[in-house]
Amino acid sequence: MAKKAPKTSIRKVLVSAVMLVTALCLSLSISISTYLDVKEQKKLIINKLDMIAEIIAFNAQITLIFEDRKTEEKRLKSFNEVELVKNIHIYDIDDVTNKPVFFTSYNASKTPPVPLKVNSVNELKVPKITADYIELIKPVVYEGKIEGYVYIRGGLERLNKYINTKIIVDIMLTLFVLVLVLLVARGIQKRIATPIEALSLLLQDVSKNHNYNARAERSNIEEINILATNLNLMLARTQNQLERHKADKQEIKQLNQSLEGKVNQRTIALREANQELLNTLERMHQYQNQIVENEKMASLGQMVAGVAHEVNTPIGLGVTGSTLLRDKLSDIKTAFEQKSLTSKQLERFIGDGIENLDLIYRNLNRAADLISSFKRVAVSQDLELSSDVNITNLLTNIITAMKADIAVKQPVIDIQCADGLTISSKAGPLQQVFEQLISNSLLHAFKGIENNSIDINISRSNNQLSILYTDNGCGVPNSIRKRIFDPFVTTKRGEGGSGLGMHLVYNLVTQALNGNIALDEDYASGTRFIISLPLVEIG
């Protein structure tokens, strides 16, 4: 849950902002002023000490040369009146070691002496500033030769006192300015916040009591006057809108009352039209089911006609062979009864009889095979159960049964399937799917009898059977590719095509076999259907 922002008001924000900005500006200004002032005061003190050290060094030239300590001590005591100077050391240069040694010193009243600085000559050539003192060393030079050094130590008590006094004055000035700014800010915020509070109270009254007749009063602040003017305009428009809404509501109420009768009449008419439409749809479903069933029967009839044509040939040859054998047997009987039968005649009869019987046997076996294939198609598929189906044998039987139809366009049928591939499926629907696909290619794909081919590629992967059915015909027109499986879609309207063939295939694959079928729309060398069927392991 989001954390709620703390509540505040314009009064508090305005006063706080003014006070904060003023305090920051004053603090920054006073800090910078104090820093620069202290820096300048330190610089003046350093310059003053430096000047005193120069004077002492100038005066000490003769006393160092003649080693007149008493004269130098009297001279140094004159610095009692100089409050800044606290300690003075004068160092002489030893003639043997050429190093500074103590010569004389001066300590101000109530100021303790400081250790010798003979080892800090080089360091204190630059003034050293601490919290309470300033130290520096100046060389005593006579005719270009350093005769000694002057060490001077000054106190910073007056500077610190000056800083403390300045800080107190700055604080008092800051407090005075802040109080003055607070009073001014309160006056400004009262001048701004009062009309805003009046607008807020007006809006609360409008929100609570829906008093859109109220209007905001003008003030002496231009921005708030603009806000009040816009608020009054909004309230006036809202009032007008509410009045129009009230009038429209009344008008709508009257219209609703007048429309109720019309709605009831239209509802009755719509109910009757819907009932009539439902009846029409029911009849259309019946007609569609009847047409689909007729298509099934027509397909079966075409196959039966083809099978009958194929069966007539071996039966006709069998009848011819049996008739010829009977005629020869009649000749033998006559010769036997007339006792004119010769061995030569009997031998020829036996040879012809064996040949005719072989002819009859072969054609009767061929007819039996055709009848067996026909039985697989003629049996009802409605209640068919799954069984073990050898795919190679199934396709061979289908091609044999459709031999007469296939001979018209003479396609080369290439079956790529593993030998002995056996699945558990419904043989009837599966056979009818292949028959309908082949019939569709013969009727729609092939225009002539040359260079026609059909490729059937069947493979098994895990628990799925994949079937690629491909022909090299003219392909499916772009106008019907999206609707190829819809009923009554055909390019042979009036030429023997009902438009239910691929619809029947789709229903068989998706409903009877629980699989999927799709048209490969990217295949440009003919037509290709992709079929996927789920498989059940054979126990």
UniProtKB/TrEMBL annotation:
Entries under SUPFAM superfamilies matching the protein: ATPase domain of HSP90 chaperone/DNA topoisomerase II/histidine kinase, Homodimeric domain of signal transducing histidine kinase
Membrane-spanning parts: 45-66, 167-185
Residue intervals of the Histidine kinase domain: 306-537
Residues annotated as signal peptide: none
PROSITE patterns documented for this protein: HAMP (PS50885), HIS_KIN (PS50109)
Gene3D superfamilies: 1.10.287.130, 6.10.340.10, Histidine kinase-like ATPase, C-terminal domain (3.30.565.10)
Known EC number: 2.7.13.3
Location of this chain's protein in the cell: Membrane
InterPro entries given in the database record: HAMP_dom, HATPase_C_sf, HATPase_dom, His_kinase_dom, HisK_dim/P_dom, HisK_dim/P_sf, Sig_transdc_His_kin-like_C
Reaction(s) catalysed by this chain's protein: ATP + protein L-histidine = ADP + protein N-phospho-L-histidine
Principal localisation: membrane
Ranges of residues in domain HAMP: 190-243
Coiled coil: 228-290
Alphabetically ordered keywords of this record: Coiled coil, Kinase, Membrane, Phosphoprotein, Transferase, Transmembrane, Transmembrane helix
Top EC class of this enzyme: transferase
UniProt key word Cell membrane: no
Gene Ontology molecular function, alphabetical: kinase activity
Keyword Translocase assigned: no
Entry-linked PANTHER family: SENSOR HISTIDINE KINASE
Protein name: histidine kinase
Organism listed in the record: Pseudoalteromonas aurantia
